[in-house]
Amino acid sequence: MPIRPLLAAAVVLLLAACGESVAAPDADPIVAAARAVPGVDAVAAGYLGPDGEEREAPPADPDGWTLRLEITHDVARGSGWAIETIEGLLADRPDTALPRLEIWLRPTTPADAEIVALAYPSAESDDPVGDAYLLAGTPGVARAVFDGETADVRVRDESDLAKVADVAAVNGAGVDVVRTLDDTAELAVADAPPRPAYVPAAGPWPADPAAPACDPAQLRLELTGQDAALGSRYLFLGATNTGAAPCALQGAPSLAFRTLTEQPLAVTVLPSPAADRVVVPPGGRAVAMLDWNAMPTAGNDDLSYEVLLAATPGAPPTELPLTSLVMAGQNPGSYLDIVDAGEVMVTAWQPDGAAL
């Protein structure tokens, strides 16, 4: 044996005999590479044998073993960053390399939710990484674990089941059932109340002075769109009449805002001047717009992840996570740059197709 390895071995034995701890080198170069990635907060590595044996040190014969990496990072980095990081780590690793490799992501969130996703090997059909990030940004979620085949999604309170199931349904997430942490209640995603189909207005709506005020129970409230230009921000709101007869809305909706941990934000909402009464036909959608100037968000976790929307002041509000907003060709966002002490403006309800 060459002299240098003998000397190194002797030093290790001497340190061990003296009670000094000796850090073992990373068994696989990918472990050190993962720890060196900017934005990675921690990397845990372990080996799983074909018989279920677990160990920290690499086996003498890696055939049949799996190296599992768990990469912890701030969810604010985004799913795109996570995917690029995985691709970079795998760039020089042959697919046939032993031991077999699994990479799991553990994004941390301001809500301290348990979010875990299998990032490698890639799932054949579902998108566990995208689904995990989607639910990580949804208020009420306490756990979202995706392994490419199964999903375990939990909420803290039974009242959060419907909105989280709706987010999963409209985004096509690979989860069948949403459960509470204590297993006392659950809701199948397929049983989430369906959203009414959008039917564009074919022409001007009739005035119908005999139409009664809309019953809040017969209005389906939604976030319908989002836009930005030159420092201004816009969020579009919808109220669909799911009843069998026309009903009337007048004035602006009532709004409030909550953080990812479902804490209220002190936001001033300025309604536009009173507008004409709007009679919404069955299946029709009244629209309104939220307008604000960009607000500073650096280092602030208390952003608006959820809008509480009521059709009129005093009506029961509907909890609408930003992740419930689905726009064709765009990845779902999870928050608005609306913060404590912010100020926003909202228009009155208008007929669908009206200029806002």
Automatic annotation (TrEMBL):
<keyword id="KW-0732">Signal</keyword>
<feature type="domain" description="DUF4232">
    <location>
        <begin position="214"/>
        <end position="350"/>
    </location>
</feature>
<dbReference type="Pfam" id="PF14016">
    <property type="entry name" value="DUF4232"/>
</dbReference>
<dbReference type="InterPro" id="IPR025326">
    <property type="entry name" value="DUF4232"/>
</dbReference>
<feature type="signal peptide">
    <location>
        <begin position="1"/>
        <end position="23"/>
    </location>
</feature>
<protein>
    <recommendedName>
        <fullName>DUF4232 domain-containing protein</fullName>
    </recommendedName>
</protein>
